[in-house]
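Hi C.,

You asked whether I'd gotten around to modeling the 377-residue construct. I have! Everything is below, sequence then structure, no commentary in between.
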Amino acid sequence: MGSLGKFKPYFAAIFLQVGLAGMDILSKAALNQGMSNYVLVVYRHAIATLVMAPFAVILEKKVRPKMTISIFIKIMVLSLLEPVIDQNLYYVGMKYTTATFAAAMYNILPAITFLMAWILRLEKVNFRSIRSHAKVFGTLATVAGAMVMTLMKGPVLELFWTTGRINNHEAAAKNRTDFHDTIKGGLLISVGCFRYACFVILQAVTLKTYPAELSLTVWICLMGTLEATVAALVMETGKASIWAIKWDTKLLTAAYSGIVCSGLAYYIQGVIMKDRGPVFVTAFSPLCMVIVAIMASFILAEQMFLGRVIGAIIIIVGLYLVLWGKSKEYKSQQPLMEQQIEAAKLDIGTNNENGSFDHQAIIIDEKSQERRDSIVV
């Protein structure tokens, strides 16, 4: 179990990217069918709130911190940054472009998050350390690989599962998307990406004073629903028909995005960030484009170009460098944490005259350490 536990944060981060890749394909289909992006955001977070709230109420009843004005303001800002601003910009940008292009643009997220985390001292960078070199060059490599996947095509690779399958998806998308739409979509997605980086950083900061991941997730989804509803009513004034929803792709998209990409995603990345930091979470985001390209090749029979394969390889190498640097950094911090715990035990034993209280205090301290070690990160 111990060796398996070390891989939990990696499995969780990969799960997030698989979920986001599925959301990209479903969202593009729903938007193409005329669904309003503002309504999609509202339904998405309403569903996430309803699904996640019971778990938060039951599982975090005894550990949920007291709500303060400062924490509530942070939650308001969090729900405005990601559910309202980022997602609407992302969906509108996707309308102007394609799902693959939107996923590709979001690969600048690791670089933005790394820079912001470094400025805010949430991420340590020592330019004389090989670990820091790995994180910096790995982040740059993931962005470079994403750009290669986006800009470089090369010859078409004949894959046995696409041979003979007629598909004009990419050609049709190119015909519908002119240069100006691509520029507008790219700018909107880039701004949304910056907002999401701010969201991740603020979420990491908020968890330090409100360390209840499920409850924080529910609060973000609830406030996001309310704020997104106001935005939808303002932006879609007089269009009551857009709120109608049936048992179709639109409902599936809202349910899937809400449960997987809002409810579970906010919670899982919060759990990971408490121990590994925001850079670790966003370092996996370039995988989303690789997964989208693979899924599109299988499901939509899209053509696979050599440039995409080369870009994917560069992304994997860069991701490995980042994860190697983070893992070495994490291991180097473990002895320091153990020394601090031992020092705390000795200090308790020295300052307490009551031997039974001393023993209880040490047990409590050990249990708190066990809880930290058992966190799924």
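If it helps when you're writing up: Residues 2-334 form one domain.

Thanks,
B.
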